[in-house]
Design brief:
The protein is α/β, with parallel strands linked by helices. The chain folds into two domains: 20-139, no CATH class; 154-293, Phosphatidylinositol Transfer Protein Sec14p, CATH 3.40.525. Helix content is 33%, strand content 11%. Strands 4-5-6-7-8 form a five-stranded mixed sheet, with helices on one face. It has a two-stranded parallel sheet with strand order 1-9. A two-stranded antiparallel sheet has the order 2-3. It is globular. The N and C termini lie close together (8 Å).
Length: 363
């Protein structure tokens, strides 16, 4: 398998995981301050209290955690035990302990996600942690992977994980054009109950993707998201747009820095215009996460972030379903840069040929 690419353009650096040694001094100070405040809030049983010291008996009774003990090292359980004041609580997010003094290797990685999402404003990051814990309890996010009724095989081709990018991050594909099938559209989004189920299913997809992350410094800490906009911007898809907006809001509020890039394929001029109109309200970091790609630039753009053997064939790559001839198990794709108007000789090493044929794939 050979992939030829133009050599007159410089490819952007693949999004790199957060490395603590690369933090700027003010970022290190913010991380330390957040750890101190978080430790204090946990020890004083104040992490989940409403902001500003307001009293809200309903919230307090729902989201106070069982005390942590080495003999009962389980996930954070929320229950109404407001009268107890143990020395330590076992708060976790995605199975990572939040209490800094426990010394877990992934705690700083999680805290840096919240700090990055709030531009290293410590109080805002702490509030976001609090809100995320509360939302996860109320939504049931910790149990959603085992929730009955969310195995929806008809949606397996709508949102799915498929391979990794060049830096080892999982790639999530969103093929919302599948909803042009009226039967699928109505069975998924036809009424409020179905739309709520779709929201829970989409959050479950996110949780599945997160299970592929290591949360170790320097390793894959986020997901590359590819969204194909083909056939999904019809005026008749009002329910889809409303439901998707709700999903995006949930993911933005409760999954900070879990998506390294959003690559929108088959983007229309309207998509470009909408993004340009509102992009000045977002930070430079946020702007860099959105990439809009016209149909004639899809393969070229994806190759900057994903190796050709991991790009689905419909997007100009080599990855096919159940492909025995050109699978990753048979080796990586060889990439050769050829300047426009030039001729390049390609040599193929053949260790063994079985039968009268030799197969190759050149794109």
């Amino acid at each position: 398998m050979v992939s030829s690419t133009a050599s007159d353009e410089t490819e952007p650096a693949v999004n790199s995981p957060i490395r603590q040694e690369d933090l700027k001094p003010f970022e290190r100070r913010a991380l330390l301050e957040l750890k101190v405040k978080l430790e204090e809030a946990i020890l004083k049983n104040q992490l989940l209290k409403p902001r500003g010291g307001q009293n809200n008996d309903k919230r307090n009774s729902r989201v106070v955690a069982h005390p942590y003990s080495p003999e009962n090292d389980e996930k954070c359980l929320m229950s109404p035990r407001t009268n107890e004041a143990p020395n330590c609580y076992d708060f976790k997010l995605w199975e990572v302990p939040l209490q800094p003094s426990r010394g877990h290797e992934s705690t700083d990685v999680i805290l840096l996600k919240f700090l990055n999402a709030r531009e290293f404003k410590v109080s805002d990051a702490l509030d976001m942690i609090r809100d995320t814990l509360i939302w996860r309890e109320e939504f049931g996010a910790d149990e959603i992977l085992n929730e009955e009724g969310l195995d929806l095989p008809e949606l397996e081709k709508v949102t799915f994980m498929n391979g990794k990018d060049r830096s080892g991050q999982p790639v999530c594909y969103n093929m919302y054009g599948a909803f042009k099938d009226k039967e699928l559209y109505m069975s998924t989004l036809g009424d409020e109950e179905k739309r709520e189920k779709f929201v829970r299913w989409r959050v479950r997809c996110m949780e599945k993707g997160i299970r592929q992350l290591s949360f170790k410094s320097g390793e894959a800490e986020s997901i590359l998201q590819v969204i194909d906009l083909k056939d999904c911007l019809s005026h008749s898809m009002k329910e889809f747009r409303t439901t998707t907006k709700k999903v995006v809001s949930i993911l933005q509020d409760n999954y900070p820095e879990f998506v390294s890039k959003n690559i929108f394929l088959n983007a229309s001029f309207r998509s470009y215009a909408y993004h340009a109109l509102f992009s000045h309200f977002t930070s430079t970091r946020s702007k860099s996460k959105f990439i809009f790609v016209r149909p004639n630039q899809i393969t070229k753009t994806l190759l900057k972030y994903i190796a050709p053997e991991d790009i689905p064939i419909q997007y100009g790559g080599f990855k096919r379903e159940d492909d025995k001839e050109f699978s990753n198990e048979n080796g990586k794709v060889s990439e050769v840069s050829v300047r426009a108007g030039c001729i390049e000789t390609l040599e193929f090493y053949i260790a063994k040929v079985i039968g009268p044929y030799f197969a190759n794939n050149l794109t």
